[in-house]
Specification:
Layout lengths: L12 H13 L21 H9 L1 E2 L8 E2 L3 H14 L5 H13 L3 H8 L3 E2 L15 H6 L5 H11 L15 H7 L10 H14 L2 H9 L1 H4 L5 H14 L4 H8 L6 H13 L9 H10 L6 H11 L2 H18 L7 H24 L1 H12 L9 H13 L4 H13 L5 H15 L3 H11 L5 H17 L2 H15 L4 H17 L1 H6 L1 H5 L10 H16 L7 H15 L4 H18 L16 H18 L3 H17 L4 H19 E3 L13 E3 L11 E3 L2 H8 L1 H4 L17 H15 L9 H4 L2 E3 L13 H25 L5 H27 L12 H23 L12 E2 L2 H4 L10 E2 L2 H6 L32 E7 L5 E8 L2 H19 L2 H10 L9 H4 L3 H10 L1 H21 L8 H25 L10 H12 L11 H13 L8 H16 L8 H12 L15 H14 L3 H12 L1 H4 L18 H17 L10 H23 L7 H29 L4 H28 L2 H4 L2 H21 L26 H8 L5 H4 L32
Parallel strand pairs: 2-3, 8-9
Antiparallel strand pairs: 1-2, 4-6, 5-7, 10-11
Length: 1449
């Protein structure tokens, strides 16, 4: 028998510990006091049994349930009354408890007493609960018995602590503790709490969890604080109980300080917590958050919680286990458990952010407040996506946070990829919200945000299931069909990436992509090309047995488009067919197949038949043929065709080109044409019998003058006349085929580089005026076609390494410059003559239609007034007509004159024509052409007939050719590297007009273009230094450069233009936004190293700051001999770009200001027209840069307005300021507008003073405002001398803004500075009063002249002046100086101070009077508040004002 000890109230943990140890040493036996018969009623004369029986409980022996004959409440009431009325009360209670202890010594009987009783009473007659309590539970409900029974239970409990669960599955400790739950009342809650906490401290771990989680159901509300304190101490001692303790603490009513303490303790241990415990811990942390500490707690939680290290190890371990034991599933249980824990964790978080607005907003704010230089976690991104999906009210807020983080490069592709990789199971549940977010991001104008939205689509497709993949494809198809250029481009790019990423999954969704074929007419050529590439890859790549339906549909669409008579759809068909052929004929050989994989006979037949179909459908239209050749050339350039197909294409195009465009010199006709035919521009001395030539003029003459000469009918039936438009495109295709076949060697066609061209005399001389319109147009077209031929020749041979070939390329470049000069002469004499287009695609179609709309009205007007009309006889329709007509126009197979297009371009009657306006009419130069910039002096050998060198010639890149290359390169940089936002805005303004003539360049990425330009930096630096040396020598020799001889002027302008273009290219490169992307950082380093190495020898591994500093110093050296104002502006902007990338930019800010001032104080050479030497917008930009970067804006403004401007007052009309030569009477308005704007911006940036500031701060700010008001006074008074309309407009606009800032920023300072600096404040207000009075005079001037642009600023200005009066009065009253304020009426005056006399002048003086009468405000004499009411009405009468007027000026 186990010896039992009474656990008194005064005994501590030692008693329970001893009992527990005794229980371990002497296991509880099942010996009983006496034997019981199974299922018999307990017969005993003890007071315990008797009282129970009397009250309604029949005790059973063995394993039978005790029987309850009455209702539970009735039983408790009877027993309580029996005990209270018993004669031996309160001694009977001790006897009762003693009997209970004796009775429950048997384990089976004790268990029966803990289990529910059997009810004998009918349930319908029961007034109590529907369930039966145990005997112990019923006795605990009697207050006089409860303390003794609780004591007995806690004495019995240690006997069972270390026993295993019984065979019937009942755990006795848990059963005993359950008796204490949900008691109606607790007599001694403190004692109960003490006992149960003692029990928890000695119990085994598995029971500790149960006992702790039962606490909220046992202890009363009054003991929650004590229990919380005990549990928090236990949490510190035993971290294994963290989960149950936190679970309980969440259910107790505790002091916020205690919760905060526990929460802080838990958060500090988060990094070492098991994944299984995280859900409960996070739940406790989130539920304990209050509105005041939400942001702080969430920020700390985000910092400590690192799910990446919790989830990834288990996943990696599982994957490694699978690799080692493919047949075993040892890690599957752990992995499933890990998944469940993650789901539980995010369910807790979702619930918190869904129902607690404070938590969701604090979480977003915590992520928003993370510094850009700090590391963002995948958990941050997951939380934003979860909150975005659960809380609709915060969607806009989350989108704004995401956009800002993306712009600052905090959220990059690598972080997004890691987020999906780690949390894809959680994110899969919010897939619709992710797609909605991606859709909204794609509507942005910022390229980085659009790119991030595309990554969301990409990774959603990669990591989610089939259903989500289908939703992704459907969303992308919707973007493609939206019609928005940016959306279409990025959606097609994503689809292209997905095809490469998971081809098999994309095939399942090919039917959605195929639906885009119905929207082809809304896509650009580049987009059509991408779409057909995607569909062709899905249809014709390996293992495409299930893709036959896509193949059939694509063939149907292509054949339908090719057979269309509408030119636009024929172009679509050509693009689609060539793209399809490229995929079908792609070379799929690899290193494994050792190059033996080639097309099968069936595939070869399909490819050749498709290409023959395209050729036959396009040959009737020169425009279609040009597009076909260009598309085919680009396809061969970008893709590797199978040898069999490439050989067929190369041989076919070689024969076609030779038959159509190459003739023998001996067969040149002499007398059959209106113009004498001559073989010109040959680079070799050919024998007239064996040389070849390009047959250009005869072809063009046959086309343009065919009907006049009657040749079309005399042509042989089998002779196909090819349009000369196809010469350059066909050659481009030929050279790409030869390059592919011979690995870049063009020896097979190098004769075309130096062969002559059949032309006529091109120099107009004196015959230009005598030419007819048709002859004039013919000569323009001939020169234009020759130019395009030379351009393609230069494209083809520019990368040849032999000196002989380099010399010939340079010579061809010289010919291009010469021909451009000749063409400009022809166009100057007849500017409405437009040369032939060089490329034909849908963008060209768009531009021509826009141009037609713009000039149609003017053309009609000229025709009505007897303007020169051009006849388009019969069926002769211009080859350009098809481009300017509507989409329904048909292709005319007979090319003829260009009369209609000439009409469209009428109106350009300038005497001087620049070919920059016609850049889209010329063949595009490849990026490889600019390798010519590397050329120095090239020795060219001249050979005799036996190929022996007989002479040498030195060829060098001259300034005209250099300028030609630099202009083209700057145009490419502007289109490819200009910040994407600015470029897109321009694109939306004029759809399709920005990229015309750059179709080949658009197929390259901006990274490729930037890399090419970085490789050209070294030769461009050489040229820049050479040109700089030229101007330095020129400035030393002669200061009057422009007044020199004519050639010197021409050379000067050439070199100056080259200088400007070089700086423009440098600026475009370094301003490229792509340098901020991590993958392009190495490219930035390379570019900066080139500039740095110009100053000192190469040093490896220099830090970025050092490279930026050295590059800045290198470029700064060029400022001394800068030749033009435009170049100076580009230089200073380039230096600013360099500084922006440096962290020490503030140190060099003064250098920018000094440089800008130097340029403003320099005398610049003037052009032909004095006024146009410095463009206004550029002067505005440079002056703004100077004032923004100078140390003291106020001093700089005072210097210009107080020193520079007075030098102009009494000078002649064309004079300039000696201090600032850029300041003239013509440019004064620019200076005035910039100074007024910068003055307002500067004072607005000064914080308003507060009473808590020190006296020194008050004095400094007061001095600052004195200087600002003095500058304002100087500027305002200048309108008395310079009273032009733009000056007055700037004065009204920026004057009001300055007064508003004075009210908000300066008046609070004057409030608490008045008493200590009374005289200074009054002096400041008096000065300001004079300025506001002049503003009032300006308002009167605007009204008397009825100038709408000026008067629309008057109401707001008068209202602001009214507020100033009231505010000054309030300031004086605040300082007990009301007597210093008096108010009178001012008369309306003009700028010169003369009174404005009107019909109602006497009646309306009070109403029209401006309340800027601050002269009375600061009067030091007596107070006279007469007329105070008059001022309040003036500004209320005129409320309308267009505040935004002149924002663009």
């Amino acid at each position: 028998m186990v010896s039992k000890r009474r656990l008194s109230k005064s005994e501590g943990n030692e008693s329970l510990t001893e009992d527990a140890s005794n229980a371990r040493k002497q296991p509880l036996s099942k010996k009983t006091r006496k034997s019981h018969v199974y299922n018999e009623v307990e017969e005993n004369d003890s007071a315990f049994v008797t009282l129970l029986k009397t009250s309604g409980i029949i005790l059973k022996t063995g394993e039978s349930q005790n029987q309850l004959a009455v209702d539970q409440i009735v039983f408790q009431k009877k027993l309580f009354q029996t005990l209270r009325k018993h004669p031996s009360y309160p001694k009977i209670i001790e006897e009762f408890i003693s009997g209970l202890e004796s009775y429950i010594e048997d384990q089976d009987i004790f268990r029966n007493c803990l289990l529910s009783c059997e009810r004998l009473q009918d349930e319908e007659a029961s007034t109590g609960t529907s369930y039966s309590k145990s005997l112990i539970k019923l006795l605990l409900g009697i207050d006089i018995l409860q303390p003794a029974i609780i004591k007995t239970l806690f004495e019995k409990l240690p006997e069972f602590l270390f026993e295993s669960t019984n065979s019937d599955g009942i755990n006795m400790p848990r059963l005993i503790i359950s008796q204490l739950k949900w008691l109606d009342s607790i007599v001694d809650s403190k004692d109960l709490t003490t006992k149960i906490m003692q029990l928890i401290s000695i119990a085994p771990v598995y029971l500790q969890h149960d006992f702790i989680t039962s606490l909220p159901e046992i202890v009363g509300d009054s003991q929650h604080a004590d229990v919380g304190k005990e549990l928090s101490d236990l949490l510190t001692e035993n971290t294994s109980l963290t989960v149950p303790i936190l679970d309980v603490l969440s259910s107790l009513q505790l002091d916020p300080q205690l919760l905060s303490k526990v929460r802080q303790l838990v958060i500090s241990k988060l990094s070492s917590v098991k994944l299984d415990d995280l859900p409960v811990i996070i739940k406790f942390i989130l539920h304990s958050i209050t509105a005041t500490d939400a942001l702080e707690v969430i920020s700390e939680l985000r910092e400590k919680l690192d799910l990446q290290h919790c989830i990834l190890p288990s996943r990696l371990q599982a994957s490694q286990s699978k690799l080692k034991n493919k047949g075993r599933t040892s890690s599957s249980g752990n992995q499933e458990n890990s998944k469940d824990c993650v789901f539980l964790l995010f369910d807790v978080i979702k619930s918190a952010v869904r129902y607690e607005k404070t938590i969701s907003e604090a979480w977003i704010k915590a992520i928003e407040c993370i510094a850009p230089e700090s590391e963002h976690k995948t958990f941050d991104l997951v939380m934003l996506l979860i909150i975005y999906s659960t809380n609709t009210q915060t969607k806009k807020y989350i989108e704004r946070v995401l956009r800002n983080k993306i712009r600052s490069d905090c959220f990059q592709e690598q972080l997004l990829h890691s987020t999906f990789y780690i949390h894809y199971l959680v994110l899969k549940d919010v897939c619709p919200s992710i797609l909605s977010l991606a859709q909204n991001l794609l509507h942005s104008l910022d390229q980085s945000i659009i790119l991030f939205g595309s990554f969301l689509y990409k990774y959603a497709f990669k990591f989610f299931d089939t259903y989500c993949q289908q939703e992704v494809i459907a969303a992308l198809v919707t973007h493609v069909c939206s019609g928005n250029e940016a959306e279409v481009d990025i959606a097609l790019d994503v689809l292209l990436d997905l095809v490469v990423l998971n081809l098999s999954a994309m095939r399942l969704n090919a039917v959605f992509v195929k639906g885009i074929l119905d929207y082809l007419d809304k896509l650009s050529p580049r987009q059509i090309r991408k779409l057909f590439y995607i569909l062709s890859t899905l249809a014709f790549s390996k293992q495409h047995e299930g893709s036959s339906h896509i193949q059939d549909d694509m063939h149907l669409v292509v054949r339908k488009q090719l057979s269309s008579t509408i030119f636009k759809y024929k172009l679509i068909g050509i693009i689609g067919a060539v793209t399809m052929a490229g995929i079908m004929a792609a070379d799929r050989s690899s290193s494994l197949t050792q190059g033996k994989a080639d097309l099968t006979n069936e595939q070869y037949t399909q490819v050749t038949s498709l290409l023959q179909l395209v050729h036959s459908c396009s040959k009737q239209s020169p425009q279609a043929s040009v597009l076909y050749y260009d598309e085919f050339a680009n396809m061969i350039q970008g893709a590797k065709l199978a040898p069999k197909a490439l050989e067929w294409v190369g041989q076919t195009i070689f024969n076609d080109f030779q038959d159509a465009f190459v003739v023998d010199l001996c067969a040149v006709p002499k007398d059959d044409y209106q113009f004498p035919v001559k073989a010109l521009y040959g680079l070799e001395e050919y024998n007239s019998q064996d040389g070849i030539a390009i047959n250009l003029m005869p072809l063009l003459f046959s086309q343009d003058f065919a009907e006049v000469e009657g040749r079309m009918a005399s042509q042989e039936p089998d002779h196909k006349l090819v349009s000369p438009l196809c010469l350059a495109p066909c050659f481009r295709l030929l050279r790409h085929c030869v390059e592919r076949q011979h690995n870049g060697n063009l020896e097979e066609i190098d004769g075309l580089l130096d062969c002559p061209i059949l032309l006529t005399d091109l120099e107009p001389g004196g015959r230009q005026e005598s030419m007819s319109v048709k002859e004039h147009s013919f000569m323009c077209s001939l020169i234009h076609l020759t130019l395009n031929w030379f351009r393609e020749v230069v494209n083809a041979f520019c990368q040849q390494t032999l000196p002989e070939m380099k010399g010939k390329v340079l010579t061809r470049l010289k010919h291009i410059v010469e021909l451009q000069r000749i063409l400009e002469k022809y166009l100057s004499g007849m500017p409405d003559c437009i040369p032939l287009l060089a490329t034909f695609h849908l963008e060209t179609l768009d531009v021509m239609s826009h141009t037609s709309t713009a000039v149609s009205a003017k053309v009609k007007k000229q025709e009505m007034t007897g303007g020169r009309k051009r006849k388009a006889g019969g069926n002769k329709t211009s080859s350009h007509d098809t481009l300017s007509k509507e989409d329904g126009s048909e292709c005319d197979p007979t090319p003829s004159n260009r009369g209609q297009l000439e009409k469209e371009f009428k109106g350009k009657e300038e005497k001087t024509v620049s070919l920059q306006d016609y850049h889209f009419l010329f063949r595009e130069l490849d990026m490889e052409v600019f390798s010519i910039l590397h050329c120095g002096l090239v020795t060219k050998f001249i050979f005799d007939t036996e190929m022996h060198p007989k002479a040498t010639e030195i060829v060098q890149l001259q300034p005209p050719e250099l300028l030609f290359l630099l202009e083209d390169l700057s145009h490419k940089v502007e289109n490819m590297l200009t910040p994407s936002v600015a470029r897109r805005v321009l694109f939306l303004k004029s759809k399709g007009s920005q990229n015309i003539g750059l179709s080949n360049l658009q197929q390259r990425s901006s990274q490729e273009v930037a890399r090419c330009i970085v490789q050209l930096l070294t030769p461009m630096c050489n040229h820049l230094e050479n040109i700089n040396n030229y101007f330095q020598c020129l400035s030393v020799e002669n200061h009057s450069i422009i007044g020199g001889p004519g050639m010197q002027v021409q050379e000067y302008h050439l070199m100056s233009s080259c200088y400007q273009r070089l700086l423009q290219i440098f600026h475009g490169l370094f301003a490229w936004s792509g340098f901020f992307q991590p993958e392009n950082q190495s490219l930035l380093y390379s570019a900066l190293e080139v500039l740095t190495n110009r100053l000192k020898p190469r040093e490896p591994d220099q830090p970025l700051e050092e490279l930026l500093s050295q590059s800045f110093h290198y470029l700064q050296h060029f400022h001394q001999s800068i030749p033009s104002f435009q170049s100076a502006l580009y230089l200073i902007r380039l230096l600013m770009i360099i500084l922006e990338k440096s962290t020490a930019s503030t140190q060099n800010k003064g250098k920018i200001a000094s440089l800008a001032r130097h340029f403003l104080c320099r005398v610049w050479p003037s052009g032909e027209k004095e006024r146009s030497s410095i463009p206004n917008d550029q002067l505005h930009a440079l002056l703004s840069i100077y004032l923004e970067h100078t140390d003291s804006v106020l001093k700089a403004i005072e210097e210009i307005a107080g020193v520079g401007v007075p030098e102009l007052v009494n000078s002649s009309k064309d004079a300039f300021s000696s201090t600032f030569p850029t300041l003239t009477r013509h440019t004064f308005v620019i200076f005035f507008r910039v100074m007024m704007a910068e003055l307002g911006k500067t004072v607005k940036g000064l914080q308003a003073g507060t009473a808590s500031d020190s006296q020194q701060v008050h004095e400094e700010k007061l001095l600052y405002w004195n200087m600002a008001v003095r500058d304002f006074s100087i500027l305002i008074n200048l309108i008395k001398v310079f009273d032009s309309r733009p000056v007055l407009h700037a004065c009204l606009k920026y004057g009001r803004l300055f007064v508003e800032v004075f009210l908000k920023q300066c008046m609070p300072l004057l409030d608490f500075s008045f008493r200590k600096h009374r005289e200074d404040v009054l002096s400041l207000l008096e000065t300001f009063q004079l300025n506001t009075r002049l503003l009032h005079h300006l308002c009167g001037h605007s009204k008397i002249h009825q100038d709408m642009k000026l008067t629309q600023h008057v109401p707001l200005l008068k209202k602001t002046l009214e507020l100033l009066v009231c505010r000054v009065k309030a300031m004086l009253i605040l300082n007990n100086c009301r007597e210093a304020f008096w108010l009178g009426n001012l008369k309306n005056r003009d700028l010169q101070g003369e009174e404005i006399i009107s019909q109602n002048s006497q009646e309306s003086t009070a109403e029209d009077e401006s309340v800027d009468d601050t002269s009375s405000q600061v009067s030091k004499s007596k107070a006279s508040e007469h007329g105070e009411e008059d001022e309040a009405s003036d500004g209320d009468k005129e409320q309308k004002s267009d505040e935004s007027d002149d924002d663009s000026n």
